[in-house]
Amino acid sequence: MTCRFFLGVAEAMFGPGVPLYLSYFYPRENVGFRHGIFISGAAMANAYGSALAYGISQIRGSVAPWKILFIIEGVPTCLIAIIAWFFLPDSLLATRFLNEREKAVAAHFVARNQKVEEGSEKSGIRFRELFEAFKDPKSTSSNPTTPTYLKLTPSPGYIPGIMYFSCNVSFASLPLFVPTIISEMGSFSQIQSNGLSAPPYLLCFFTIIILSFLSDRFRMRGPFCAFAALVAAIGFILQATTKSVASRYFGVFLSVNIFASVALLLAWTANLHATESKRAGGYTILATIGQCGPLLGTNVFPASEKPYYHKGMWISCAFCLLVTVLSVALSLHLVRENRKMERAGLLVPQGSETAGAPSNGEFAERKIRYIY
Q1: Angle between helices 245-255 and 198-218 (to 10 degrees)
Q2: pLDDT tens across 106-154, in order?
């Protein structure tokens, strides 16, 4: 239990830490594809994870199979961690594979519509900005120069956390129960079920990459997030209402697409906060609320409900639909806020923000256009 506790502590930092780290190196409108690549690796791991676990469990020797599984999966991770420690840069200006001009160009694009603290004497976490993400929704900034209008702008900081929670309720059960669901369809053995659980995740891998790319291309997060969640909801409905093997297996292909919404939420959270410290606070909220989802998701498929697991399917469907509704609602809210700020003269004209990035001294959060 002690080892599991420290493993959980490390994973708790890794999950939100990587998206935050990526946001330091890429412009806000291009970070979605990078987050998609990061999350797609988890989908690919689910594609071969069940088969790998089953194969390792067949090893017979003096060491228990579950211990062999931890060794095989843990040793490469430890080796990669050592390599990452020495080769991953701490910041954009600390990169060793870019010359000075390339660093300046990269910094210019990253600073576009968000604050970059490179070279600042006060670089690092600014706790006042971090805790702003946790404040009352009626207060988005403690900066005394912030216009009254912006102080009354509702903060959307907790909505992505609720969406992430909903995604995890629907997705967390799938890696555990997809092989069981497939085997309970009545036509496949346990070995076949482990093999047949891989293709849905393989499709999900490509879905994440494509939607993340399109999300960056069109500078939209909500519509794509809602689309992926709606497709997943249809998949859960198919599994809850049909009994044929083909339709239920097709439903699994659709259901796993809820994972694409997770990748888009990571990018959307980065886009909602203009400063590095506030993004850290935003990811803290996202992970804290969102990671409670598996507590529910892993307990809605009891053995007494097999072979159709109606309760679990409908609960998962409901949370997918909640993600869809919240995505649309948050997008409409951000579009409305953009229009209000345009009318108030607080935003630069659409498209002109690509012409250049203000210096940190000239930076004003009130000029940020929300990516919806």
Answers
A1: 40
A2: 888 887 777 666 554 455 666 565 656 666 443 333 343 444 434 434 4
What are the extents of the domains in the chain? 11-58+129-367
Q: At what angle do helices 198-218 and 222-241 cross, to 10 degrees?
A: 150
Q: How far apart are CA 305 and CA 308, in angstroms?
A: 7
42 CB-near residues (< 8 Å, 6+ apart): 259
Enter the DSSP assignment of 355: G
- Structure confidence by residue, pLDDT tens digits, 165-210: 999 999 887 876 777 777 777 667 766 777 788 889 999 999 999 9
Question: In CATH, what number does 11-58+129-367 get?
Answer: 1.20.1250.20
User: What's the rounded Cα separation, in Å, for the pair 226 and 321?
Assistant: 8
Tokens of 186: 């009545």
Q: What letter represents residue 209's amino acid? A: I
Q: What is Dmax (Cα atoms) for the chain?
A: 73
Q: How far is it, in rounded angstroms, from Cα 229 to Cα 8?
A: 27
